[in-house]
Amino acid sequence: MSHYVLYLVLGIIFFVSGCVIVYNGYQPKVGPIGNGPNYKLIWFQFFILAIYSITAFIKSFLLFKLEKKNSKDDE
Length: 75
Description:
The chain crosses the membrane at residues 5-23, 43-64. Helices cover 79% and strands 0% of the residues. The protein is mainly alpha-helical and 75 residues long. It has a domain at 15-28 and 37-70. 9% of the residues are buried. The mean pLDDT is 87.
């Protein structure tokens, strides 16, 4: 399996994980009144995972281009 496919899958997993964190953070929960969500933590986790996913997508694209270039050079 090519490395660019692995990074593409990782980018998708990171992005979906970030969306799930935001979705679960804003779901109403039963409990004491003072036990509200920590919005700074929710958005911090989302942006960290978004940065990871963008980095994985860029690395996947660059590896794909490099592999394509190397395969043309071999021919």
